Amino acid sequence: MIMEGFQATPDDGGIAKRLWVKFKNESLCALYTPFVVCLASGTLDSKSFLHCISQDVYFLQAFAHAYELAEDYADDDEDKEAIRVMRKRVLRKLKDQDDLVREWGFELPEVSTCDNATVRYTDFLLATAAGKVEGEKGRGKIVTPFEKTRLAAYALSAIAPCMRLYSFLSKEIKAVLVPEESTNIYERWIDCLCSESFEANASRIEDLLDKLSVTLTGEELDVVEKLYHQAMKLELEFIAAQPITQSTITPISQVQEPAGCNLTLFCDFDMTCSAVDSSALLADVAIIAAAKTDLEDCESPYVHISAADLRATWSNLSSKYIEEYEQVIECIRPSETVGRFDYEGLCKALVQLSDFESRANDMVVHSGVLRGLSQEDIKRVGEHLIFQNGCKNVLQEISGRENMHADVHILSYCWSGDLIRSAFSSGALPELNVHSNELPYEGTVTTGDMIKKMESPMDKLQAFNDILKSRENNGKHTTVYVGGSVGDFLCLLNADVGIVIGMSAGLKRLGDQFGVSFVPLFSGLVTKQRELAEGSCSGWTGMSGILYTVSSWDEIHAFILGL
After folding, report:
1. Of 496, 463, 483, 34, nearest to 263 (Cα)?
2. Is 376 a catalytic site residue?
3. β-sheet bridge partners, residue 265
4. Is 335 a residue whose pLDDT tops 80?
5. Among the options 29, 38, 52, 162, which is catalytic?
């Protein structure tokens, strides 16, 4: 959920919760850093762990000083006391740090230096707590209680995301530990961050930030958001900067051959890259064109259906497709769940689905709803298409990185390749390889026919294999497929890494029935890292029957490219 502003409803919670929700996808990226993956797998080199823990003293010192300043700023006695208690907790932890680390089973190094990433965060925090906030208007002598409250809120907005981030990460790590094995040497430290007391401390800071923010203006709330986000980014940079000396499984662009990463990325388009279905967009183009003809009261050799009739036709086609699609999915599911991964059985079942998809496209063509669409209108709709958050950024970075020998291919059932190409041309993306159906034109207007190239999972797989065959002479490379529909199934399974985003109900049902495992990507990485340390990991290979699930393109970015 993306927060568009601070107009709260009764269920929204305070500003701290809303900001965490807004930036949570970015925090997920920390899970894919080599440090966190190695830590969660229990294979992290102890020197790397101790180096990270040694930075705590600098963070705690900065927290203590920031709390001291915030306490001075707070106007309410109750707020002052709450901040004073927080500062005392920090000072106590600072005093007991060595003993606490010994309880975890480690000994801190006698000498440590403050890392650059640590300095960037602590300098930012202390500057914020001192009232040196970029973009603040009218900075000067603090006079009124409201001005003091504002600075106290700013200081807490630079601390709150750090506490919440570590609480979140520790719980995610705890969830992938194997209870019966209990071999992770860092489990005590993880348990400490998962504890009720740590969660309570994080919540107290957030509650106080909420309280102090109540009287802030809209501009001041914008500053709180910027500070919160900046603190989050600096903390993520700190985690990503932790030195790792061992071999790691992620990010895949940095663990390939020294000459660079050879990567072929395949993506579905509808609801994987786009936030709306392309058929709905083409329906809008057709209905608007028909309405324009109705309004002008003129005849067209192409648009011969009224806007009202065309809208009804589209609605009927859509309803019929959904109804029959569900029937086909139910029909091709085996009567009993297969106990093992059954690729051959899945392929046979998908043949029936392919026949249905072909018939559905024939119905669309025969209805005439694709006749008379302007090529200019189709491209304009593509240029204004809304993408899934983060998608274009991932594709742009992969295509633009000099040390990556990467190809990006879009494999789509979309009826119009022009729509896809124009969608990607609206950004800073280089020209991508688009494999889809096409709408033929007479002049610059569609004829109503369709050049069918991509109608079934088998069509997608054929294109997938043809592309890989054309790259055989480029040496060893990794294939990643990103999709979420039944049409993507075979490509997802054949890719070295099949990543499912926005999983359709049909994909999940068929996968469960034919023995496909859906594993959260982070959990899969932890398992792979553990296997790598044990010497039993042979890298990423397709046809394992395992597909990896993510909730956002930010996770895909972190997995492939890193933070």
Report:
1. 496
2. no
3. 408, 480
4. no
5. 162
Name which of 421, 323, 438, 321 is nearest 370 in CA terms: 438
How many whole angstroms separate alpha carbon 220 and alpha carbon 231? 17
Rounded to an integer, what distance in angstroms lies between the CA atom of residue 201 and that of residue 59?
A: 16
> Which residues make Cβ contacts (< 8 Å) with residue 207, sequence separation at least 6?
14, 16
Q: How far apart are CA 490 and CA 481, in angstroms?
A: 10
Q: What is the DSSP secondary structure assignment for residue 305, as one 8-state letter?
A: S
- Would the pTM count as exceeding 0.85? yes
Q: Please say whether the beta carbons of 40 and 249 come within 8 A.
A: no
Distance CA 94, CA 58 (A): 9
**Residues comprising the chain, all counted:** 563
Which pairing describes strands 497-501 and 478-483: parallel, antiparallel, or unpaired? parallel
Kindly report, residue by residue over 131-147, the tens digit of the pLDDT.
998 766 555 555 576 77
* Diameter of the chain measured on Cα atoms: 87
pLDDT tens digits, 190-232: 999 999 999 999 999 999 999 999 999 999 999 999 999 999 9
Task: Reply yes or no on whether 267 is catalytic.
Answer: no
**Among 26, 220, 225, 235, the one annotated catalytic:** 235
CA 161, distance to chain mean position in Å, is 19
Q: Return all residues near 73 (Cβ < 8 A) that are at least 6 apart.
A: 142, 148, 149, 151, 152, 155
